[in-house]
Amino acid sequence: MESHDEERNAYRQKTYGADGVKGNLAAMMKRQELNAAFFLTVPGPKMIWQFGELGYDISIEDGGRTGRKAPKWEYLDVPERKALYDTYCGLIKFRRDNPEFFDSTASFSWKVGTNDWDEGRFITCTAGNRSFVVVGNFTSEERTFTVEMPSAATWTDHFDRETSYEGDTLNLTLPAGEFRLLTTF
């Protein structure tokens, strides 16, 4: 998602972001959460580059490309950044607690191409009798997406356990820049 070779996503959003994102910390951090959901729920090793979990929005060129970057621990006092941090923690815990989804025996698919922008982007994974689906709205406006689930089941929102859906086809309305991680467990 980020590395030492390129500008940080939050910096790019702050500097070059689209209307409604540039200069809007809440929108920027929601999009960072969305990116993290699509990064951390796919198989393979993951690296979180210096303070990405806090929405670090200082240029890579600050102090020189390879210069020391000052930690911004005060970011944890900003509710939008703390929510991003908590999302990272939740996604990493999900990954750690469910390793069967991230090995070669799991059935994994994704619909994340440029043609999938308006109709929603999806990640689907099944391991044994358990499944998860990630639905993301990468557009700049609220959208309702029709989501084909891997099975008819009760689908629970991983981050809001009070919210659940029934069936094998769901119509989900998501605000711009938001995601849902739905599970059958």
Structure description:
By secondary structure, the protein is of the alpha+beta class. The protein has a six-stranded antiparallel beta sheet. Strand 2 and strand 3 form a beta hairpin. Helix 1 runs antiparallel to helix 2 and helix 2 runs parallel beside helix 3. The longest helix is centred in the middle third of the chain and has 19 residues. The two termini are 28 Å apart. 30% of the residues are buried. The model has no long low-confidence stretch (mean pLDDT 95).
List keywords for this structure.
185 residues, alpha+beta, six-stranded antiparallel beta sheet, globular
Outline the secondary-structure elements.
Elements: H1 9-16, H2 25-40, H3 79-97, E1 107-111, E2 121-127, E3 130-136, E4 143-157, E5 164-174, E6 179-183
Antiparallel strand pairs: 1-2, 2-3, 3-6, 4-5, 4-6
Helix pairs in contact: 1-2, 2-3
Summary?
With 185 residues, the protein is α+β, with helices and mostly antiparallel strands. Helix content is 23%, strand content 27%.
| Contiguous runs where pLDDT drops below 50 for at least 5 residues | none
Approximate helicity band: 10-25%
Give the beta-strand count.
6
Distance between the termini: 28 Å
Helices and strands, in N-to-C order? Answer: HHHEEEEEE
Radius of gyration: 17 Å
So what's the overall shape? globular
Q: Let me know the largest β-sheet.
A: 6 strands, antiparallel
Order of strands in the sheet with most strands: 1-2-3-6-4-5
The tally of helices reads: 3
Structural class: alpha+beta
Calculate the mean pLDDT score and round it. Answer: 95
What is the beta-strand fraction?
Answer: 25-35%
